[in-house]
Amino acid sequence: MSTTSAVFQPPPPARGRLPVIGHALQFVRGPLRVLQDLRGQGDIVALHLGKLPIYVVNSPQLLHDVLVTDAGSYTKGRMYDKTRPVVGNGIATSEGAFHHRQRRLITPAFHRPRLRGYSEAMREQAESVIASWKPGQRIAVDRVMHEMSVGTTVRTLFGTDIDSGTIAEIDSCVGVFLQQVIVRTVMPNFIERLPLPGTRRFEAARERLKAIVDTILDERLRSSEERDDLLSLLIAARDEETGEPMSRQQIHDEVITMVVAGADSTAYTLSWLLYELGRNPTVEARLHDELDTVLDGRPVTFDDLPRLPYTQRLIQETLRLHSVSWIQMRRTIAPVRLGATHLPAGAEILFSATTMHRDPDLYPDPLRFDPDRWLSPPRREAFQPFSAGPRKCPGDHFSLTQLAINLATIAASWRLVPATRRKVREVPAAVLRPNHLPMVVQARS
User: For 393, how many CA atoms within 13 A lie in the half-sphere containing its CB?
Assistant: First the structure.
Protein backbone atom coordinates (compact mmCIF):
# COMPACT_ATOMS: atom_id res chain seq x y z
CA MET A 1 0.00 0.00 0.00
CA SER A 2 1.27 3.47 -0.81
CA THR A 3 0.50 6.59 1.18
CA THR A 4 1.59 9.00 -1.55
CA SER A 5 0.65 10.14 -5.01
CA ALA A 6 2.55 8.99 -8.09
CA VAL A 7 4.62 12.19 -8.17
CA PHE A 8 5.74 11.93 -4.54
CA GLN A 9 9.50 12.07 -4.01
CA PRO A 10 10.38 10.86 -0.51
CA PRO A 11 13.13 12.64 1.41
CA PRO A 12 16.53 10.98 1.57
CA PRO A 13 16.90 8.37 4.30
CA ALA A 14 18.03 9.24 7.79
CA ARG A 15 21.64 8.60 8.75
CA GLY A 16 22.35 6.58 11.85
CA ARG A 17 21.57 3.03 12.93
CA LEU A 18 17.79 2.87 13.06
CA PRO A 19 15.50 -0.13 13.37
CA VAL A 20 13.42 -0.19 10.18
CA ILE A 21 9.92 -1.59 10.44
CA GLY A 22 7.67 -2.34 7.46
CA HIS A 23 4.28 -2.41 9.17
CA ALA A 24 2.17 -0.64 6.54
CA LEU A 25 -0.83 -2.98 6.53
CA GLN A 26 -0.54 -3.74 10.23
CA PHE A 27 -0.42 -0.03 11.00
CA VAL A 28 -3.62 0.65 9.08
CA ARG A 29 -5.41 -2.24 10.81
CA GLY A 30 -4.05 -1.70 14.30
CA PRO A 31 -1.97 1.48 14.57
CA LEU A 32 -1.98 1.75 18.34
CA ARG A 33 -0.72 -1.82 18.80
CA VAL A 34 2.04 -1.25 16.25
CA LEU A 35 3.15 1.96 17.97
CA GLN A 36 3.10 0.26 21.38
CA ASP A 37 5.24 -2.61 20.02
CA LEU A 38 7.72 -0.12 18.57
CA ARG A 39 8.53 1.37 21.96
CA GLY A 40 10.91 -1.48 22.72
CA GLN A 41 12.73 -1.17 19.38
CA GLY A 42 14.67 2.01 20.04
CA ASP A 43 14.46 5.74 20.71
CA ILE A 44 13.69 6.37 17.02
CA VAL A 45 12.24 3.74 14.70
CA ALA A 46 11.74 4.08 10.94
CA LEU A 47 8.23 2.95 10.01
CA HIS A 48 7.53 2.63 6.28
CA LEU A 49 4.04 3.23 4.91
CA GLY A 50 4.54 2.39 1.26
CA LYS A 51 7.36 4.62 -0.01
CA LEU A 52 6.92 7.11 2.83
CA PRO A 53 9.35 6.71 5.76
CA ILE A 54 7.95 7.93 9.06
CA TYR A 55 10.26 8.27 12.02
CA VAL A 56 8.58 7.26 15.29
CA VAL A 57 10.07 9.02 18.32
CA ASN A 58 9.81 6.93 21.50
CA SER A 59 12.20 8.73 23.85
CA PRO A 60 10.55 11.34 26.13
CA GLN A 61 13.73 13.43 26.09
CA LEU A 62 14.02 13.38 22.30
CA LEU A 63 10.33 14.24 22.05
CA HIS A 64 10.96 17.20 24.36
CA ASP A 65 13.71 18.30 21.94
CA VAL A 66 11.24 18.14 19.03
CA LEU A 67 8.40 19.95 20.80
CA VAL A 68 10.26 22.43 23.00
CA THR A 69 14.05 22.73 22.76
CA ASP A 70 14.33 22.76 18.96
CA ALA A 71 10.69 23.42 18.05
CA GLY A 72 11.65 25.96 15.37
CA SER A 73 13.20 23.20 13.26
CA TYR A 74 9.84 21.49 12.72
CA THR A 75 6.47 22.17 11.15
CA LYS A 76 3.35 20.18 11.89
CA GLY A 77 3.55 17.47 9.25
CA ARG A 78 1.34 15.33 7.06
CA MET A 79 -1.61 14.90 9.42
CA TYR A 80 -2.07 18.67 9.61
CA ASP A 81 -1.71 18.98 5.84
CA LYS A 82 -4.80 16.77 5.61
CA THR A 83 -6.63 18.70 8.32
CA ARG A 84 -5.92 22.24 7.05
CA PRO A 85 -8.29 22.12 4.03
CA VAL A 86 -11.12 21.27 6.42
CA VAL A 87 -10.57 23.52 9.45
CA GLY A 88 -8.67 26.27 7.62
CA ASN A 89 -5.56 28.04 8.85
CA GLY A 90 -6.51 28.20 12.51
CA ILE A 91 -4.34 27.92 15.61
CA ALA A 92 -4.08 24.12 15.29
CA THR A 93 -2.80 24.11 11.70
CA SER A 94 -1.06 27.46 11.09
CA GLU A 95 2.71 27.79 11.14
CA GLY A 96 5.56 30.21 11.83
CA ALA A 97 5.07 33.88 12.56
CA PHE A 98 1.38 33.72 11.66
CA HIS A 99 0.84 30.97 14.25
CA HIS A 100 2.60 33.01 16.93
CA ARG A 101 0.46 36.04 16.09
CA GLN A 102 -2.75 34.03 16.33
CA ARG A 103 -1.63 32.50 19.60
CA ARG A 104 -1.08 35.98 21.06
CA LEU A 105 -4.57 37.01 19.96
CA ILE A 106 -6.34 33.89 21.20
CA THR A 107 -4.60 33.10 24.50
CA PRO A 108 -6.31 35.88 26.53
CA ALA A 109 -9.65 34.21 25.83
CA PHE A 110 -8.50 31.30 28.01
CA HIS A 111 -7.11 33.24 30.95
CA ARG A 112 -8.39 32.46 34.44
CA PRO A 113 -11.01 35.26 34.69
CA ARG A 114 -12.58 34.00 31.46
CA LEU A 115 -12.56 30.39 32.66
CA ARG A 116 -14.65 31.42 35.66
CA GLY A 117 -17.39 32.65 33.33
CA TYR A 118 -17.15 29.64 31.03
CA SER A 119 -17.49 27.30 34.01
CA GLU A 120 -21.08 28.43 34.54
CA ALA A 121 -22.00 27.48 30.97
CA MET A 122 -20.19 24.16 31.44
CA ARG A 123 -22.19 23.33 34.56
CA GLU A 124 -25.50 24.46 33.06
CA GLN A 125 -24.94 22.29 29.99
CA ALA A 126 -24.15 19.26 32.17
CA GLU A 127 -27.17 19.93 34.38
CA SER A 128 -29.47 20.12 31.36
CA VAL A 129 -28.22 16.73 30.13
CA ILE A 130 -28.47 14.81 33.40
CA ALA A 131 -31.85 16.35 34.26
CA SER A 132 -33.51 13.89 31.86
CA TRP A 133 -31.86 10.78 33.35
CA LYS A 134 -33.92 8.27 35.29
CA PRO A 135 -32.77 5.47 37.61
CA GLY A 136 -32.26 2.23 35.68
CA GLN A 137 -31.97 4.04 32.33
CA ARG A 138 -29.39 2.65 29.93
CA ILE A 139 -27.41 5.28 28.05
CA ALA A 140 -24.61 5.29 25.48
CA VAL A 141 -22.14 7.27 27.58
CA ASP A 142 -19.76 8.05 24.72
CA ARG A 143 -22.61 9.45 22.62
CA VAL A 144 -24.17 11.44 25.48
CA MET A 145 -20.82 12.92 26.55
CA HIS A 146 -20.09 13.92 22.96
CA GLU A 147 -23.41 15.73 22.65
CA MET A 148 -22.78 17.44 26.00
CA SER A 149 -19.25 18.47 25.03
CA VAL A 150 -20.32 19.88 21.66
CA GLY A 151 -23.12 21.77 23.39
CA THR A 152 -20.67 23.26 25.87
CA THR A 153 -18.19 24.23 23.15
CA VAL A 154 -20.87 25.80 20.94
CA ARG A 155 -22.56 27.73 23.73
CA THR A 156 -19.24 28.95 25.09
CA LEU A 157 -18.31 30.12 21.62
CA PHE A 158 -21.62 31.60 20.48
CA GLY A 159 -23.65 32.18 23.64
CA THR A 160 -26.48 30.31 25.30
CA ASP A 161 -29.14 31.22 22.71
CA ILE A 162 -27.95 28.62 20.16
CA ASP A 163 -30.80 26.17 19.64
CA SER A 164 -30.46 22.43 20.22
CA GLY A 165 -31.09 21.64 16.54
CA THR A 166 -28.04 23.63 15.47
CA ILE A 167 -25.95 21.96 18.17
CA ALA A 168 -27.08 18.53 16.93
CA GLU A 169 -26.09 19.42 13.35
CA ILE A 170 -22.66 20.60 14.46
CA ASP A 171 -22.24 17.44 16.53
CA SER A 172 -23.01 15.28 13.50
CA CYS A 173 -20.60 17.19 11.24
CA VAL A 174 -17.76 17.02 13.75
CA GLY A 175 -18.30 13.28 14.21
CA VAL A 176 -18.03 12.58 10.47
CA PHE A 177 -14.91 14.71 10.13
CA LEU A 178 -13.04 13.13 13.03
CA GLN A 179 -13.86 9.60 11.86
CA GLN A 180 -12.25 10.28 8.50
CA VAL A 181 -9.19 12.44 9.18
CA ILE A 182 -6.80 9.64 10.21
CA VAL A 183 -7.88 7.52 7.24
CA ARG A 184 -7.12 10.43 4.91
CA THR A 185 -3.71 10.86 6.54
CA VAL A 186 -2.47 7.33 5.79
CA MET A 187 -4.23 6.70 2.49
CA PRO A 188 -2.89 7.73 -0.93
CA ASN A 189 -3.83 11.25 -2.02
CA PHE A 190 -5.83 10.08 -5.04
CA ILE A 191 -8.29 8.24 -2.76
CA GLU A 192 -9.67 11.62 -1.68
CA ARG A 193 -10.75 12.33 -5.25
CA LEU A 194 -12.77 9.12 -5.63
CA PRO A 195 -16.56 9.33 -5.08
CA LEU A 196 -16.50 6.85 -2.19
CA PRO A 197 -19.29 6.97 0.45
CA GLY A 198 -16.86 8.09 3.17
CA THR A 199 -15.51 10.85 0.94
CA ARG A 200 -19.00 12.12 0.11
CA ARG A 201 -20.01 12.15 3.79
CA PHE A 202 -16.80 13.96 4.66
CA GLU A 203 -17.31 16.67 2.02
CA ALA A 204 -20.97 17.14 2.92
CA ALA A 205 -20.14 17.49 6.62
CA ARG A 206 -17.36 19.97 5.87
CA GLU A 207 -19.60 22.19 3.75
CA ARG A 208 -22.46 22.08 6.24
CA LEU A 209 -20.24 22.95 9.21
CA LYS A 210 -18.74 25.89 7.32
CA ALA A 211 -22.21 27.12 6.34
CA ILE A 212 -23.44 27.02 9.95
CA VAL A 213 -20.42 28.95 11.20
CA ASP A 214 -20.71 31.47 8.35
CA THR A 215 -24.35 32.17 9.20
CA ILE A 216 -23.60 32.76 12.88
CA LEU A 217 -20.51 34.84 12.15
CA ASP A 218 -22.23 37.07 9.59
CA GLU A 219 -25.10 37.71 11.98
CA ARG A 220 -22.70 38.60 14.78
CA LEU A 221 -20.61 40.95 12.63
CA ARG A 222 -23.78 42.86 11.66
CA SER A 223 -24.96 43.14 15.25
CA SER A 224 -24.04 45.97 17.61
CA GLU A 225 -25.09 43.96 20.69
CA GLU A 226 -22.36 43.44 23.28
CA ARG A 227 -21.96 39.78 24.25
CA ASP A 228 -19.68 37.90 26.59
CA ASP A 229 -18.62 34.79 24.68
CA LEU A 230 -15.57 33.48 22.87
CA LEU A 231 -16.68 34.71 19.46
CA SER A 232 -16.99 38.27 20.78
CA LEU A 233 -13.44 38.05 22.13
CA LEU A 234 -12.14 36.84 18.77
CA ILE A 235 -13.89 39.70 16.96
CA ALA A 236 -12.57 42.27 19.45
CA ALA A 237 -8.99 40.93 19.57
CA ARG A 238 -6.28 43.26 18.30
CA ASP A 239 -2.64 42.51 17.55
CA GLU A 240 -0.56 44.21 20.25
CA GLU A 241 2.13 45.13 17.73
CA THR A 242 0.03 46.37 14.80
CA GLY A 243 -3.39 47.02 16.32
CA GLU A 244 -4.93 45.00 13.50
CA PRO A 245 -7.96 42.73 14.10
CA MET A 246 -8.36 39.25 12.70
CA SER A 247 -9.83 39.04 9.22
CA ARG A 248 -13.29 37.56 8.83
CA GLN A 249 -11.76 34.44 7.26
CA GLN A 250 -9.35 34.04 10.15
CA ILE A 251 -12.14 34.31 12.73
CA HIS A 252 -14.06 31.69 10.72
CA ASP A 253 -11.04 29.35 10.72
CA GLU A 254 -10.43 29.76 14.46
CA VAL A 255 -14.07 29.03 15.26
CA ILE A 256 -14.06 25.88 13.10
CA THR A 257 -10.83 24.79 14.79
CA MET A 258 -12.24 25.29 18.28
CA VAL A 259 -15.43 23.40 17.47
CA VAL A 260 -13.59 20.45 15.93
CA ALA A 261 -10.68 20.29 18.37
CA GLY A 262 -12.62 20.96 21.54
CA ALA A 263 -15.52 18.57 21.25
CA ASP A 264 -14.05 15.11 20.83
CA SER A 265 -11.08 15.23 23.18
CA THR A 266 -13.06 16.37 26.21
CA ALA A 267 -16.05 14.14 25.43
CA TYR A 268 -14.09 10.92 25.16
CA THR A 269 -11.77 11.72 28.08
CA LEU A 270 -14.87 12.13 30.25
CA SER A 271 -16.37 8.93 28.79
CA TRP A 272 -13.26 6.93 29.71
CA LEU A 273 -13.23 8.50 33.18
CA LEU A 274 -16.84 7.48 33.85
CA TYR A 275 -16.03 4.00 32.55
CA GLU A 276 -13.13 3.67 34.99
CA LEU A 277 -15.30 4.87 37.87
CA GLY A 278 -17.91 2.26 36.98
CA ARG A 279 -15.24 -0.44 37.05
CA ASN A 280 -13.63 0.74 40.31
CA PRO A 281 -16.25 1.21 43.06
CA THR A 282 -13.61 2.03 45.69
CA VAL A 283 -12.25 4.86 43.55
CA GLU A 284 -15.78 6.06 42.87
CA ALA A 285 -16.59 6.08 46.60
CA ARG A 286 -13.58 8.30 47.31
CA LEU A 287 -14.76 10.74 44.64
CA HIS A 288 -18.25 10.83 46.17
CA ASP A 289 -16.82 11.45 49.64
CA GLU A 290 -14.79 14.41 48.37
CA LEU A 291 -17.72 15.94 46.48
CA ASP A 292 -20.09 15.51 49.43
CA THR A 293 -17.60 17.07 51.84
CA VAL A 294 -16.64 20.06 49.70
CA LEU A 295 -19.93 20.81 47.95
CA ASP A 296 -22.39 19.70 50.64
CA GLY A 297 -25.16 19.31 48.09
CA ARG A 298 -24.75 22.60 46.23
CA PRO A 299 -23.67 22.99 42.55
CA VAL A 300 -19.94 23.02 41.86
CA THR A 301 -18.30 26.37 41.05
CA PHE A 302 -14.99 27.40 39.55
CA ASP A 303 -13.67 28.38 43.00
CA ASP A 304 -14.33 24.86 44.30
CA LEU A 305 -11.89 23.20 41.89
CA PRO A 306 -8.68 23.78 43.91
CA ARG A 307 -10.42 22.09 46.86
CA LEU A 308 -11.09 18.90 44.88
CA PRO A 309 -7.62 17.27 44.71
CA TYR A 310 -8.88 13.71 44.25
CA THR A 311 -11.11 14.85 41.40
CA GLN A 312 -8.05 16.41 39.78
CA ARG A 313 -6.00 13.22 40.21
CA LEU A 314 -8.79 11.22 38.57
CA ILE A 315 -8.61 13.53 35.56
CA GLN A 316 -4.81 13.31 35.38
CA GLU A 317 -4.88 9.51 35.52
CA THR A 318 -7.52 9.35 32.79
CA LEU A 319 -5.47 11.69 30.60
CA ARG A 320 -2.54 9.30 31.13
CA LEU A 321 -4.18 5.91 30.66
CA HIS A 322 -6.67 7.04 28.02
CA SER A 323 -4.79 9.77 26.14
CA VAL A 324 -7.36 10.45 23.46
CA SER A 325 -4.93 12.58 21.41
CA TRP A 326 -3.09 9.37 20.62
CA ILE A 327 -1.06 10.42 17.59
CA GLN A 328 0.68 13.59 16.42
CA MET A 329 3.17 14.43 13.70
CA ARG A 330 5.90 16.92 12.86
CA ARG A 331 8.05 17.51 9.76
CA THR A 332 11.66 18.70 9.68
CA ILE A 333 12.20 22.07 8.01
CA ALA A 334 15.93 21.47 7.48
CA PRO A 335 18.31 18.61 8.28
CA VAL A 336 18.42 18.04 12.03
CA ARG A 337 20.25 15.83 14.46
CA LEU A 338 17.90 14.11 16.88
CA GLY A 339 19.90 12.14 19.41
CA ALA A 340 22.36 10.04 17.42
CA THR A 341 20.20 10.21 14.28
CA HIS A 342 20.55 12.68 11.41
CA LEU A 343 17.17 13.37 9.83
CA PRO A 344 16.87 15.01 6.39
CA ALA A 345 14.72 18.01 5.57
CA GLY A 346 11.13 16.94 4.94
CA ALA A 347 11.29 13.91 7.25
CA GLU A 348 7.93 12.99 8.77
CA ILE A 349 8.06 12.41 12.53
CA LEU A 350 5.35 10.63 14.48
CA PHE A 351 4.86 10.30 18.22
CA SER A 352 2.18 8.91 20.49
CA ALA A 353 1.42 10.29 23.93
CA THR A 354 -0.81 7.28 24.55
CA THR A 355 1.93 4.69 24.13
CA MET A 356 4.39 6.83 26.10
CA HIS A 357 1.90 7.07 28.96
CA ARG A 358 1.63 3.26 28.96
CA ASP A 359 5.35 2.59 28.98
CA PRO A 360 6.21 0.45 32.05
CA ASP A 361 9.65 2.09 32.23
CA LEU A 362 7.91 5.41 32.85
CA TYR A 363 4.77 4.28 34.72
CA PRO A 364 4.91 1.11 36.83
CA ASP A 365 1.97 -1.21 36.18
CA PRO A 366 0.84 1.19 33.44
CA LEU A 367 -2.52 -0.40 32.59
CA ARG A 368 -3.77 -0.10 36.18
CA PHE A 369 -6.03 2.89 36.82
CA ASP A 370 -4.42 4.47 39.89
CA PRO A 371 -5.19 8.12 40.66
CA ASP A 372 -2.81 8.07 43.63
CA ARG A 373 0.20 7.68 41.35
CA TRP A 374 -0.24 11.44 40.87
CA LEU A 375 0.71 12.09 44.48
CA SER A 376 4.24 11.86 43.02
CA PRO A 377 3.92 13.21 39.45
CA PRO A 378 6.34 12.02 36.75
CA ARG A 379 8.86 14.29 35.08
CA ARG A 380 7.19 16.65 32.65
CA GLU A 381 8.68 15.08 29.49
CA ALA A 382 6.85 11.83 30.29
CA PHE A 383 3.36 13.37 30.42
CA GLN A 384 2.11 15.17 27.31
CA PRO A 385 -1.71 15.06 27.13
CA PHE A 386 -1.84 18.51 25.48
CA SER A 387 1.54 18.40 23.70
CA ALA A 388 4.23 20.90 24.77
CA GLY A 389 6.22 23.91 23.68
CA PRO A 390 5.06 26.76 21.42
CA ARG A 391 2.39 24.56 19.82
CA LYS A 392 0.90 23.27 23.05
CA CYS A 393 -2.90 23.36 23.02
CA PRO A 394 -3.93 26.86 24.20
CA GLY A 395 -7.21 25.46 25.50
CA ASP A 396 -5.67 23.00 27.99
CA HIS A 397 -6.99 24.80 31.07
CA PHE A 398 -10.38 25.20 29.42
CA SER A 399 -10.50 21.43 28.90
CA LEU A 400 -9.33 20.63 32.44
CA THR A 401 -11.94 22.99 33.85
CA GLN A 402 -14.69 21.45 31.74
CA LEU A 403 -13.71 17.93 32.77
CA ALA A 404 -13.74 18.83 36.47
CA ILE A 405 -17.03 20.75 36.31
CA ASN A 406 -18.77 18.03 34.30
CA LEU A 407 -17.48 15.19 36.46
CA ALA A 408 -18.46 16.92 39.69
CA THR A 409 -21.93 17.75 38.34
CA ILE A 410 -22.60 14.18 37.19
CA ALA A 411 -21.09 12.34 40.17
CA ALA A 412 -22.81 14.53 42.74
CA SER A 413 -26.17 13.04 41.75
CA TRP A 414 -25.62 9.85 39.75
CA ARG A 415 -23.64 6.65 39.50
CA LEU A 416 -22.96 5.01 36.15
CA VAL A 417 -22.30 1.28 36.06
CA PRO A 418 -21.29 -0.82 33.03
CA ALA A 419 -24.31 -2.30 31.28
CA THR A 420 -22.42 -5.22 29.77
CA ARG A 421 -19.36 -7.37 30.38
CA ARG A 422 -18.29 -7.02 26.77
CA LYS A 423 -14.84 -5.52 26.44
CA VAL A 424 -14.76 -1.87 25.48
CA ARG A 425 -12.31 -1.52 22.60
CA GLU A 426 -10.31 1.56 21.70
CA VAL A 427 -11.00 2.98 18.24
CA PRO A 428 -8.05 5.06 16.97
CA ALA A 429 -9.76 7.70 14.85
CA ALA A 430 -8.79 11.38 15.11
CA VAL A 431 -8.99 10.72 18.84
CA LEU A 432 -8.95 7.47 20.80
CA ARG A 433 -12.62 6.78 21.42
CA PRO A 434 -14.51 3.77 22.81
CA ASN A 435 -16.23 1.54 20.26
CA HIS A 436 -19.31 1.42 22.51
CA LEU A 437 -19.89 2.38 26.11
CA PRO A 438 -23.35 1.43 27.41
CA MET A 439 -23.87 2.20 31.10
CA VAL A 440 -26.82 2.17 33.47
CA VAL A 441 -27.79 5.24 35.43
CA GLN A 442 -28.26 4.78 39.18
CA ALA A 443 -29.30 7.52 41.59
CA ARG A 444 -26.93 8.09 44.47
CA SER A 445 -28.40 7.24 47.84
Answer: 18
Rounded Cα distance, 441 and 445, in Å? 13
Provide the pLDDT for residue 287.
98
Residue 377: DSSP 8-state = P
Q: How far apart are CA 189 and CA 194, in angstroms?
A: 10
Domains of the chain: 20-443 (1.10.630.10)
Q: Which of 210, 213, 233, 232 is nearest to 106 (CA)?
A: 233
Name the pTM for this structure.
0.88
Angstrom CA distances, 167 to 172, 207, 218, 337, stand at 9, 16, 18, 47
CA distances from 286 to 58, 310, 395 (A): 35, 8, 28
**36 alpha-carbon distance from chain centroid:** 19
Query: How many CA atoms lie within 13 Å of 329's alpha carbon, on the beta-carbon side?
Result: 21
Give pLDDT, residue 7. 30
pLDDT at 91: 86
Most confident of 45-54, 255-264, 400-409: 400-409
> If you average pLDDT over residues 79-93, what whole number do you get?
78
